[in-house]
Every structure is written in structure tokens, then in C-alpha cells.
Design brief:
The chain is mostly helical and 279 residues long. The chain has one domain. The chain is 70% helix and 4% strand. The chain has 11 helices and 3 strands; from the N terminus they run αααββααααααααβ. A hairpin with a 5-residue loop joins strand 1 and strand 2. The chain is globular.
């Protein structure tokens, strides 16, 4: 019963956060303001989830999970527009967000990928509520992590899994460097070349198509690009947390997972509250 109640608390807090983030996302894509109601929804969900975990888990276990949520910043996520705009930003919209000009088809593809991340967050929350932390780790690491677009390409090229893991780790390290520096190129091609000793034809083909329809970072202000990279790094951290959970999850485990989810949604909320992608 206690585990079931903990899972209910996890699901409530995280799903309310996702609903609020979705409201912000709708405003970001549709031209409306990031409504105060969305912020209130997220914060109310966090408070309700924390209270449920405290009351239902009981004792130190409930306090521990609630404290982990607070430490992750859930309910205190990044707010407001960026103070400065990078070279790609061309002005502001009425609500104070900076708008970023992005050509087609990049703009449509970018927004579709963002909606995909919302779906993946929903899947993560459902998996966590069911106690399926292997699935949480898979989605967070492979579908949202630093090399989320590249893993399938390398598998298509029949690259051994251990080599793929090495590429992913190197990309993660490079992403951390770029974030710490406040911007920079990811140099994925160089990393693939160094790890594999060659660049597979499948990668070359993907890269060519990627530059025609993707390569979103080149259109973003550095601050926006770095925030996006940090989201991918936080997804990798969630995968690490979920992978480390044993056969019998504890209140502490659920708290760690929820905290890690909160670190992802912090970046989502901060980005959508700061910038609007336009043609």
C-alpha cells in the first residue's frame, strides 16, 4: 500500500507539472502568453504531490522524498524571459519573450521534436508511476539524452553496442563542455570518427539530411541553445538515476526520480517562457 501511495504522489506531482508545461508550450507555439495559470498549475501539482507523499508514505521516507523534490527546484522552476538575446533573436513579442527567427522546414521540425519530448515525458511519468524504471532509463537516455538523434543512425550502420555507448558518453562529455563554456559546436562527426575510426555512410547520409531539415542550434541565441543542451544532459542524469534503482524501489528512489524529472521540466519551462520560435 505504501508503495502504491508513493507512486500516486509521484504521478500527481509530475503529471501536473507536465500539464503546466504543456500550457506554456501551447503559448510558446501558438503566439499566446505563457499563462500565469500554467505556472500556478505546475506549482499546485508539486505541492499536492509533496503533501500526498508526506502523508501517505509517512515518517522520514515521506520527508525525504519531498525534500528531494524541493532540492530539484520543482515548484521553483526558471521563470521569465532571457535578459539578452543572441545573434539569432530578432525582437520580442508582447509578453516579453524573445522571438527567434527560424526558416522552414527547420521551424516545423523543431516544434514537432519539442512536442515529441512532451510525449516522452508523459511516457516517463507513466513508467515511473508503474515502477518500471528500466523503461524510464531507456526513454530518458535514448529518446531525450545527448545523442538521442544519433543512436538509431549508428544502430542502422550495425555499429556494436559497446561502441555506440562510447560515442554517447563522448557526446555527453562534449555537451557538458559546451554548456560550461556558454556555447560552442558539438562536433559529433569528429567524435564518431575518433571512436569508430571511420564515419559510416549512414552517418554521412543522416548528417546531410540533418543540415537540410535540422541543425537547429545555428538559428538559436547561445543562451537558448545552452538551455536545450542542458535539458538533454538532465535527461541523461535521469537515466543514470533510474538505472541505479534496484528490484525493490524505496521512497528515496521515487524521490530521486521525481527530482530528476523536475530538472528536465525546469529547462522546458524556462526555455518556453523565454523564447518564441517564428518564421
Amino acid at each position: 500500500m505504501r508503495k502504491s501511495n508513493l507512486m500516486m504522489g509521484v504521478a500527481l506531482a509530475a503529471s501536473m507539472a507536465l500539464a503546466g508545461a504543456g500550457a506554456v508550450l501551447a503559448g510558446s507555439h501558438g503566439g499566446g502568453k505563457p499563462a500565469d495559470a500554467a505556472t500556478q498549475m505546475m506549482e499546485k501539482g508539486m505541492q499536492q504531490g509533496m503533501q500526498m507523499m508526506k502523508e501517505m508514505a509517512g515518517g522520514d521516507a515521506g520527508k525525504m522524498a519531498a525534500e528531494m523534490m524541493k532540492k530539484a527546484g520543482m515548484g521553483q522552476m526558471a521563470k521569465g524571459p532571457a535578459d539578452t538575446a543572441g545573434k539569432a533573436a530578432t525582437g520580442t513579442v508582447e509578453d516579453g519573450r524573445v522571438f527567434v527567427e527560424m526558416p522552414e522546414p527547420q521551424r516545423s521540425n523543431f516544434l514537432a521534436i519539442m512536442r515529441g519530448f512532451m510525449e516522452q515525458l508523459d511516457d516517463i511519468i507513466n513508467a515511473a508511476a508503474e515502477g518500471n524504471f528500466k523503461e524510464v532509463a531507456r526513454i530518458a537516455g535514448q529518446d531525450m539524452g545527448p545523442a538521442h538523434e544519433l543512436i538509431g543512425v549508428l544502430r542502422e550502420a550495425k555499429v556494436p553496442e559497446e561502441k555506440i555507448a562510447e560515442v554517447v558518453q563522448r557526446i555527453r562529455q562534449r555537451m557538458e563542455e559546451v554548456v560550461q563554456a556558454g556555447g560552442g559546436k558539438m562536433m559529433m562527426g569528429r567524435i564518431v570518427q575518433e571512436v569508430l575510426g571511420e564515419v559510416p555512410p549512414a552517418f554521412r547520409k543522416w548528417k546531410q539530411e540533418h543540415m537540410k531539415t535540422g541543425g537547429f542550434g545555428r538559428f538559436m541565441p547561445p543562451e537558448m541553445h545552452v538551455m536545450g543542451l542542458q535539458m538533454h544532459l538532465n535527461a541523461a542524469k535521469l537515466a543514470d538515476v533510474a538505472t541505479a534503482i534496484g528490484e525493490k524501489p524505496t521512497a528515496e528512489d521515487y524521490g530521486k526520480v521525481l527530482s530528476a524529472i523536475g530538472e528536465i521540466t525546469t529547462q522546458c519551462r524556462g526555455c518556453h517562457a523565454s523564447w518564441k520560435v517564428m518564421r
